[in-house]
Structure formats: structure tokens, C-alpha cells
Amino acid sequence: MNRIENGFRAGCLLLAILVWGPSGEAWAQEGGPESVEDLVKARLSEDGKSLDLSGGTLGPEGAAKLATLESLGKLETLLLQGNKITYRGMKALAKSPYLVHLKHLDLWGNLLGDLGLKALVDSPHFKDLVALKLWKNEIGDDGLALFAESAQFKNLKILMLNDNLITPEGLAALAQSQNFPALETLNLFRNEVGDGGVEALAKAQGFPNLQALYLGQNQITDAGALALLRSRGFPNLKVLDLVLNRLTEKTLVEVFQYNKEKGVQVITR
Q: Can you tell me the distance from the alpha carbon of 110 to that of 85, in angstroms, rounded to the nearest whole number?
């Protein structure tokens, strides 16, 4: 019976490795950070400009190892979705001299918190970023305020902050910033910005190139929605997403009229 059980377990382990590959749970448990270099070799694009480690289990130690690899010197796109690197891993990456050419950085679901965002802001290596995705990272008002004060993201076109902990105070800090002149897409879906946040945003003058604004599920009522519709701060706006908020039929009529007159697609359902 023991031989049968042992054989079954070995077969399951082999199957797991075949299915999940070196980036799955087996890699995390057996190889740990020592296997990061092999993982990068397997996933780095031929030209050395793109690396997708999404869905892995790097953790902070793996991220620290990643930061030391000279092979990333040409990297422009780094995808780290769901690796739970935490602020410690972000701090290590922020110090890496091999990530200075990054243009696209996806950090979805990495438990960065405000400290992780501070590490990114304090780094001198991310000035070329064009797209920054920070979904589900427990980022709050303090972190966003620090980000808004930074002048190193002048080239940023896409900023994804959905599913975080941002309230009116945090959005007001971003709204007052003049540091994002190139921004085209801002996603704040499923935060807690409310009317206070969007009313502050409606007064913003620092987003002349904004084309898409996502504010779904943010406890916005008629007052906030109407403030946005009447704002003159977004001359190039093409999409305004207000789904899953608290708008009355009266405001929806104004939204329809706004769509018709301004040519802006306002999404409410």
C-alpha cells in the first residue's frame, strides 16, 4: 500500500509541475528566490524588453532577487500581477539600476500599501513610465497624496487605481496636482471617493489630455455626477464611466443630453 501511495504522490507532483510550470506553487516551494533567474530566462522576450511574471508567487524575496538581474537592463514592460511582493519587494525593485527603461509596469494585487507606493515615488528609476497599473494594492489617501506631489511621472498616460482605499481626501490631492499633463486614462473604479472627491476632480486644471475617466462604484450621487458633467477641465474627454453609483432618473436625463451635445460616452449601467 505504501508503494502505491508513494507512486500516486509522485505522479501528482509531476502533474502539478507539468500544469503549473516553474512559476507555480511548486516553483515557490522548491526553488524559492534561487529559481527566479531561471524563470526570467524562460519568460523574458527575445529582445529583452518584455517580461511577464503574472500569476506567480515571487513574494518580497523573489522580487528582491529579480531586482539584481542584469538581464533586465533593456526591460520596458514588466508584468507582476498577483505576486504579493508587498512594500518590501517594491522597495527592492525601486532600487534596481536595471529597471530604468521601464515604460509599462503592472503591479496588480501585490499588497503594496502606501509604503509600497512611496518606494516607487521615491525611486529615480521610473521617469519613463507610460502605463502604471496599481489595482488592488490597499493604497489609501496618504500614498496617493505622495504620488500626486511627485514630478517624475510627466510621461504617464495610463494610471489604474481601481479597487483601492481612496477617499475624497486622496482624490482631492490628485485633482490639485499639475504633474500629469500627459495622462489619458484614469481608473478609480471601486474606491470611496464619493461626491466630495469628484467635485474636487471637476475643478482640476491639470489633466488637459484625459480621454477616459472610470469612477464606477464610488458612492457618487447626482451632485457629484452633475459637477463632472459641467466641468471644463477635461476638453478631450471621450469616456466617463459612472456605473453602480447613486444617480436618479433626473440626472440620467441630463447624462443623455450631455452625451448628445458633447459626444462623450457616459456609462451609467
A: 5
Domain count, the chain: 1
**Is residue 9 in some structural domain?**
no
Alpha helix positions (H), 45-167: 59-66, 86-94, 113-122, 141-149
pLDDT at 142: 98
Kindly list the distances between the CA atom of residue 266 and the CA atoms of 158, 226, 244, 246, 262, in Å, as whole numbers in the listed order: 19, 12, 13, 14, 10
Taken in order 168, 113, 137, 98, the sign of the CA dihedral is positive
Q: Is residue 27 part of a domain?
A: no
pLDDT in tens, 224-261: 999 999 999 999 999 999 999 999 999 999 999 998 89
| pLDDT of residue 13 exceeding 60 | no
Global pTM exceeds 0.85: yes
Closest CA to 102 of 120, 84, 117: 120
- Inter-CA distances, 18 with 11, 57, 147, 155, 239, Å: 11, 17, 42, 41, 43
